[in-house]
Amino acid sequence: MPVLTDDLVAAERFTQSAQPVLVTGDGLLLRPWTADDAPAVFEAYGDPSIQRWHVRSANSVAEVCDWIERWAGTWRAGVGAHWAVVDADSERLVGRAALKDLELAGGQAEVAYWTAPAARGRAVTPRAVAALTTWAFDVGFHRLQLSHSVANQPSCRVAAKLGYALEGTMRSAGLHADGWHDMHLHARIADGYPAGMSGPEKDRTTAETQQDEADFAEEHAKATYADEHPKGAELETDESTPDGHGGMDL
Fold it and tell me: Average pLDDT of 130-155?
């Protein structure tokens, strides 16, 4: 059956090209993972916040080495793109940023991330995801999305500040250690989203849609108790808290 549209992202960009190093321009690099990163990743997955939102822990450095090998393999297969986020000066690992579940024909992918505990408070996730987003749209991706538990308000603020509009709530869509969570779905479209394309948006003006998104972004950009009291609850102060549920991380 012939397909009537061209692929938006060429598979050869992954299968026949080396994974690039991305530069944030403000002190961070996103580079391919290496086996030398395994001890730092193992330490990160011992953090309660990462365990809570990613629903995963590591039993050994050797197990993490297997993860890293699998992350590298997703690039070669054209199904994922996983970067280590490092400090440009010290080369110390500070986080992870990834595109998962690549659908190259339609130019779609899911964003995932976490920040190492020692690097929190430096806006690592917003800086890294901004660089990843720019790269993805530059190479032809059309839609990037991310999801997080509705209980993870810091991640909601990060998404809003990066222009990932809230599209809705997926009911009971994420299984966490404490049970099923409703999940927020956010997305960004390359070159924005002209209202009236499909579904319930078809009768709305572009101005109305943009105002809704602006109101949401403004609400989530407001200072919270945690922002004003950085020594408060650890979970609330971590704007780079990772998101997800079982099965999302690897």
Answer: 96
Query: CA-CA distance, 240 to 154, in Å (whole number)?
Result: 7
H/E element holding 214? Answer: helix 206-221
DSSP, collapsed to helix, strand or coil, labels residue 166 as strand
| Count, residues in the chain | 250
Task: Grade residue 2 by pLDDT with cuts at 50, 70 and 90.
Answer: confident
CA distance 48 to 234: 10
Q: What letters, b where the CB count within 10 A reaches 16 and e where it falls short, cover 125-159?
A: bbbbbbbbbebbbeeebbbbbbbbbebbbbbbbbb
Which range among 22-26, 107-111, 244-248 shows the weakest confidence by mean pLDDT? 244-248
- Quote the tokens at residue 77: 């297969």
pLDDT of residue 5: 84
Which DSSP helix (H) or strand (E) runs through 176?
strand 165-176
Which own/partner pairs from 209-217 qualify as long-range (CB within 8 Å, at least 24 positions apart)? 213/165, 216/160, 216/165, 216/166, 217/160, 217/161, 217/163
Angular region, 131: left φ>0, alpha ψ -120 to 50, beta rest: alpha
Of the candidates 81, 67, 69, the residue with the CA atom closest to the CA atom of residue 15:
81
The answer to whether the beta carbons of residues 55 and 244 sit under 8 Å apart is: yes
